[in-house]
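Final report, Chapter 2: Outcomes

The project's central promise was a pipeline that accepts a single protein chain and returns its three-dimensional structure in a standardized token representation, suitable for archiving and comparison. That pipeline is now operational. To close this chapter, we reproduce one record exactly as it appears in the project archive, with the input sequence first and the structure output second.
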Amino acid sequence: MMTRLAYNIGLLAGLILALPWLLVKALRVPGYAGWVLHRLGWADASLSSTVFPNSAASPNPTTSPRIWLHALSVGETASVRPLLRALRAHYPQAALMLSSSTRAGATLAAATCANLVDCRLVMPYDLPGAATRIIRRLRPDLFILVETDFWPNLLGALAAAKVPMLLINGRMSPTSWNHYRILRFWARPLLFAPFTFLAMQTKAEVDRMVALGLTPARVGVIGNLKYTAAAAIGHRPKLARSELGIGAHKLLWVAGSTHAGEEEIILRAFRRLVVQWPDLFLVLAPRRVERAAMVLALAKQYGYRVALRREPKGAAAKGATEAEVVVLNSYGELVDLYSLGTMVFIGGSLVPAGGHNPLEAAVWEKPVLFGPHMEDFAEISEDLLAVNGALQVQNEDELVAGLQRWLADPNHRAACGRRGGELVRTRDQGVLAAHLALIERLQTTKINNVKR
């Protein structure tokens, strides 16, 4: 009780301190004021035309459960989409509800999940009382958290309402583990103990959970949904190079989900490479779309002919045909751009940002490079390296050397890409079935508990 009280005092103090920053951002960023009101719980949480499904509890949770899934942002939303599709097929009468914590995640959910769920909503800040109010409205039979975004008040309110909780694709990086280990007296009861079962991505993460004091029977590995999500990507139609003004003869390097500090490295590497391969073309895709103008200006400082992927009104950029570099400034297109690439660099990895998902490129059988900071995708990056489906580099010189080898040897880069694609297809097998079986078991457990 004292631990939760201390948490809430700290949370409220932090929010008060953050209010000036939130106000400034609300005034400067279009649409952000409405988003903050949603997150503060001062506006209706719904983002979909169906405000909320019927608030009555499911008459028969085995056939028509009310399942609330929470995906923090873009990566988590992409991971959960195949599970949503499977749940819709398995429970056709279910009320499926999907919440997001970021605007980017909500945008992706609207674009790719709207036909799979009955309700999309904003996850409010974890303020006292906010979680209780939204639980009363949703009346979930099961809560599923995708990967991360643990909130003590939310988890406590779900536990008080006797709602089973499932963590899927759970991850705990070595850095997070060190923090949780020090604060285990706080983390275990507030963040992890409320879950009925925690499905982690790797055996190492299972061991960390057990070391925090969780019962081994409540933690396990049932397969990584990111492989399933990536396998589904391979069935999507590809973009045409002509849509970006890139000739068929061009060698295309796609640098995806880049962060501040990485674009400079990439642009310097590109300058070194075009001396030997003048037909090389670069697509730079910053992780945060709002940084596109800054990245565009940076590329111009290096003397390149640069174009945005889309003009401000959304039309395809007219200057792309004369460009050497295109900066992506739209949501939802990066995965399709990977399909056009000759080779791909995964951003957030040359700077300490935890990396991003290399499977989105590997599924297209593209050779992938990434830097040393892949903590958020440790299992996946290790899997790709183990089958020689990717190359890990430490700095600009190694990045240039790796790309030079692939540019000089088409057979080598093609073989690397094939091995990555085969890994995706192999690891996808049985993952959805294992998740559905676990969800079915949790639903049955809840019904038996209610009967008792």
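Archive annotation: The CA atoms of residues 206 and 220 lie 6 Å apart.
This record, like all others produced under the grant, will remain available to the consortium after the project formally closes.
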